[in-house]
Amino acid sequence: MDRIARRNAVNNVMLTVTGLCTIVTVSVLFLILGYLIVNGWRSVDWNFFTKLPLASGETGGGMANAIVGSGVVILIASAIGIPVGFMGGVYLAEFGGKTVPMIVRYTADLLNGVPSIVIGIFAWTVVVVPMHHFSAWAGGFALSLMMIPIGLRATEQFLRGVPNSLREGSLALGASKTRTIISVIVPAAKQGILTGMILGVARVAGETAPLLFTSLNNQYWAKSLNEPTAALPSMIYYRAISPYEDWHRQAWAAGLVLLVLVLVANIASRWVLSRGTSAQRG
Amino acid sequence: MGTAVVTAPQQTRSRKLVKLLRDGDQIAHLVTFLFAASVFLVTVFLVYELWIHSGPSRTKFGFSFLTGKTWDPVAEQFGALPFIYGTVLTSIIALLISVPLGVGAAIFLSELAPPKVSNACTFLVELLAAVPSVIFGLLAIFTLVPIMRRYVEPFLKHTLGFLPQFQGPAYGVGYLSAGLILSIMTFPFIISISREALLSVPREQREAALALGATKWESTWQVVVPYARLGILGSIFLALARALGETMAVTMVIGNDTGIHTSLLSPGYTIAAIIANEFTEATGDVHLSALVELGLVLFALTMVLNAAAQLLIVATTGKGSKQP
User: Fold this and answer.
1) Distance between CA A150 and CA A146 in Å, rounded?
2) Among A141, A281, B28, B92, fewest CB within 10 Å belongs to which?
3) 3-state secondary structure at position A86
């Protein structure tokens, strides 16, 4: 009886401990969001989105160039990363045999695991060194490398999820394989693929390390894609490590804006996916 | 099909058409193949570029680069040991905290929580994994570091000060703070993958243990967790790989000291942090190539861990199976 009581006590204690672990881990997200809102929301005003940064020590100014710069760098990254990820994924799911897809899948996982700072070095050696200057191109290239594996694996996974009966139905009607892929298989998997692409964009949107020595930073508007370009994440970094109170305030504001963007993109991707699956069921 | 009478010219025309379409398929095959192959080629090219650009440093220092303790850009003496030490130490601190916390939460989410609560919590934890690294760094600089300096580190010195790990002045920045922030950044991976592994344990295993009179905890700890151990181990490897390669948050709180210190409260450096700090300001070819070689070392470390993690995760959860 004593033994059973002890076992039950251990049972209750340990199960409570696992519950506490869950509470701690889940609450971290709310702590982060709460801290950013408390410290940042007062500084997120019209100026933040429309004004250029001011010289150190001056109060005021915004991050308009960094917001636009982030957009430009992400657009370049998407223009490279999304087509490569998508087409590569189509190959893996629809055309590939056994060996080639296995190799590509393995290297995609490898690429996905490469530390972002190493991606930055690589982009520096292949874009910055030949061009002789830091540029939005280099930043976009670096981010595209981080986007490709996510898009590739998502495309492959969701194309594989399309039932074979759909493929066979289309082929039986006389459609070619290419036509089947374009008109039947990809539309059937489009929600999943879109989810993967949004997640890919959301992941690179917050990356700082690959931009440190590719797109660098800029206090002013970048006049072309060949110039150093400011981006929101790197601006947060430079502001946060600066000694100026007013810059810290802006770092909090930029952090809040970036976090909200990334969280919204993640939640949106989930929403797209859930809508897709319920539409297929009903 | 069978009823149509096919005349000779029609037959050749349709055959041509079929051939053309088949050629279209081949074109599509080729185009998509090129895109897929580019993923492979770019990865190989990455390794090649790292190898080439680290050339001057590799020829000058050889393997002593890995064991060298001095990092002196002025004298062009470069050794990687302080950074390897800092990287490994901060990652170990991170795992000491995130593994118990993460596995505990994963057990709760897979075994105890109702499916709806479990899915909601997992979603929130996965959102945490999406928070950009620089935001963790921002919070660490302005909230974690002051707390560490004022309360946690003096407390640790007071209670555990007899150990060499907890001596020296409390700066707030250093190995311990970096490890703490890394633990928060790694437990989402541990939770979400361990939960998958635990959910893929067959129901019969639990029922058999419970039928033999085990309590819920005994069935979980002695039957379910051992059954899923490879997947859990895989998640830990993956978390370790993330921790080793993490840059921004660590760079902001590590303290930038190129020495090797026993005390966890002391400022230090990690591989990723020194690359981030010195790359654009590198003086001379040897300095630059030493930094690239550090990148190569980091790449090799994370690759080995990632490969091991993938093998372990596939071994337990099976390829893409997500059913409980």
Assistant:
1) 8
2) A281
3) helix
Amino acid identity, position B310: Q
What is the pLDDT confidence band of residue B318, given thresholds at 50, 70 and 90? low
Strands B77-78 and B71-72: antiparallel
**Nearest chain A Cα distance for residue B260, angstroms:** 22
Query: Over its length of 282 residues, how does chain A's per-residue pLDDT go in tens digits?
Result: 688 888 889 989 998 999 999 999 999 999 999 999 998 888 888 888 888 887 766 777 788 888 999 999 999 999 999 999 999 999 999 887 788 888 898 889 889 889 999 999 999 999 988 888 888 899 999 999 999 999 999 999 899 989 999 999 999 998 888 888 988 999 999 888 998 899 899 989 999 999 988 888 888 888 888 888 888 998 899 888 888 888 888 889 999 999 999 999 999 888 888 876 544 443
Cβ atoms of residues A247 and A235 within 8 Å: no
- Determine whether the interchain pair B245/A116 forms a contact, defined as Cβ–Cβ distance below 8 Å: yes
Q: Could you tell me which residues come within 8 angstroms of residue B172 by beta carbon, excluding any fewer than 6 positions away?
A: B145, B146, B148, B149, B150, B153
Q: How confident is the model at residue B322 (pLDDT cuts 50, 70, 90)?
A: very low
**Tokens for A258?**
């970036």
User: Does the CB of A266 have a partner CB in chain B at under 8 Å?
Assistant: yes
Q: In this structure, what are the phi and psi dihedrals at residue A189, rounded to the nearest 5 degrees?
A: -105, 10
Rounded CA separation A212/A237 (Å): 10
Alpha helices by DSSP H, listed for chain B, are 8-53, 55-61, 64-67, 81-107, 115-130, 133-139, 145-147, 153-160, 175-199, 203-211, 216-219, 225-227, 229-245, 248-253, 271-278, 285-317
Highest mean pLDDT among A214-218, A267-271, B186-190, B311-315: B186-190
Closest Cα in chain B to A107: B40
Point out which residues pair with B78 in neighbouring strands.
B71
Give, in order, the Cα–Cα distances in Å from B121 to each of A112, B106, B128: 25, 10, 11
Q: Bridge partners of B72?
A: B77
Q: What angle do CA B199, B202, B208 make, to 5 degrees?
A: 125
Instruction: Please report the sign of the dihedral spanned by the C-alpha atoms of residue A74, residue B185, residue B294, residue A104.
Output: negative
**Token output for B46:** 């990455």
Nearest residue to A108 (alpha-carbon basis) of A205, A210, A200: A200
| Closest partner CB to B32 (pick from A90, A120, A251) | A90
Reduce the DSSP state of residue B74 to 3 states and report it.
coil
Q: Within 13 Å of residue B298, how many CA atoms lie on the same side as its CB?
A: 35
* Residue in B57, B97, B134 to test binding to A, most A beta-carbons within 10 Å: B134
Q: How far apart are CA B7 and CA B123, in angstroms?
A: 63
Helix-strand-coil split of chain A, %, nearest 5: 80, 0, 20
Phi, psi dihedral angles at A114 (to 5 degrees): -65, 130
User: CB B35 to CB A87 under 8 A?
Assistant: yes
How far are the Cα atoms of A107, B191, B201, B211, B214 from residue B205, in angstroms, in the given order?
36, 21, 7, 10, 12
Contact at 8 Å (CB) between A116 and A207? yes
